[in-house]
Amino acid sequence: MERSEFSVLDLSQVSAFDCETDVIVCGFGGAGGSAALEAARAGASVILFERASGAGGSTGMSSCEMYLGGSGGTALQRTLGFEDSTENMINYLMKSCGERGDPEKIRLYAEGAAAHFEWVKSLGVPYKEAVMLDREVVPLTDESLLFTGNERTLEFMDAAKPVPRGHVPSHEGDFGGRIFIDALTQACVDAGVDVQYDSRVMHLVVDDGTVVGVAVKQDNQLKYIKARKGVVLTSGGFIMNDDMRKRYLPWNHKWATPYGNPFDMGDGIRLGQAAGGYTINMDEAFLSLPMYPPAKLTYGLLVNERGERFVNEDAYLARLAHFASVQPNQKLYLLLGADDFDHPMYIERLDVVATGDSIEELNAEAGIFPEGALAQTVAYFNEHARQGRDPKFRKAPEWIKPLEQGPFGLLDLSFDRQTAVIMPGTKGPLTFTLGGLDTLPTGEVKHWNGGVVKGLYAAGRVTAGLPRSSEGYASGMSVGDATFFGRLAGKQAASN
Ligand SMILES: Cc1cc2nc3c(=O)[nH]c(=O)nc-3n(C[C@H](O)[C@H](O)[C@H](O)COP(=O)(O)OP(=O)(O)OC[C@H]3O[C@@H](n4cnc5c(N)ncnc54)[C@H](O)[C@@H]3O)c2cc1C
Predict the structure, then answer these.
(1) 166 lines ligand 1 (CB under 6 A)
(2) Structural domain harbouring 357
(3) Which residues, including other chains, have CB under 8 Å from residue 101's CB and lie 6 or more apart?
């Protein structure tokens, strides 16, 4: 079924092409628009096929946060007083991506990210010279710079100096992706890209191992388009494809909520595989905790159903979710002291499972943890917290406060509860895929038997790009990666 839907067509099976162009780009999200624009600006004729009736994909739904820095700092970082060397950014990204990271992509990205910011601005995307230093995923007001990862946690500070790198278009409300995609669409049109909507790429056409065109479904008919220079796959990830999720992400299939556009069906990955493309990192996915503890809740303690802590609570929400996902039954609870228990957001929207004037009373009311477990956890934490230390998980001193003053409260953040804040009405953490075609930094798709698939390029979530795990994910790594490497793939395809 999967093979027949996305098999390659040999050139001999194509009696005639309906039309031809230099470069074909498959999917108009951040990666596709960036690839098409750069290919066109390099002088190539470009057709950009998009399955939906409009541009955007998941990029259009996103906040368009981009993780940028290096080169001494982007213009925005420098204006706001933040210096960020390329080596500092590389050190951070290497720590973030861990063993799965691609050092070549990381270096290229860190070296080019500040210039990439200038490119994004040149499209007309607005940024405000204001920084937001709170613990938030996106600013609720209109600041354009913020911390979006684990930069300020002690473990990551061992590797790199903390610098805010989340760059988000300035606006009130969460519409960054729309602003960016509208600007990118206009730039593509101005550059002469032939954008065709309601067009699903169904097959790659291959001549003696080289990709030379595509078959695309339009008005329920297959049309054959020749690519003189190359085909760029930019059709996004596979989080909406239930079969692929079951196969590659069985560990999160039961409890995570897919986060993406409806056409995140893995088409490009399967098209690439059919042409010999190699896939990697298919078992990794971004996760977000049902609720990102805002600053005040960071003083609390996250515990599992055994009443044990398992992570430094000041970690970024994707890292919190990663460690939560490996706890028994994905159960997690946030224990808070009196000072922090009156936050309206969680009182209104989250499950308060127990309260108590003492930890023992709360433990008994909750009926979840083994007797004495929570008291032991709190006693150990308090003993060191009084000296501003957290030897076990290394929470940063600014978030350490002994839990001594009751009444105490316990919130249920378990994965089988509602994702109350980010996406009301859905269950479990939100997830999107981080695996896909293995590519060179220039976008060439690696062949499973070595070398590359000639004529084939890819970027964005159809590939295993910059971000490789939830454990080290920082918001902005995906749109930053998709647009940065999308541009390189477009240029490379046009250069043939
Ligand atoms: C709500 C939300 C918020 C997010 N916020 C951020 C953020 O602020 N920062 C960040 O870094 N990441 C964010 N992410 C993740 C990020 O948006 C995506 O990972 C990234 O934008 C993917 O870009 P892409 O170009 O690879 O794919 P997409 O932007 O999804 O584009 C792929 C396009 O290909 C099309 N397509 C699919 N199949 C075919 C086919 N066969 N033929 C033709 N076209 C096809 C799709 O319709 C789609 O338009 C967010 C995700 C979501 C869902």
Answers:
(1) no
(2) 290-412
(3) 93, 94, 468
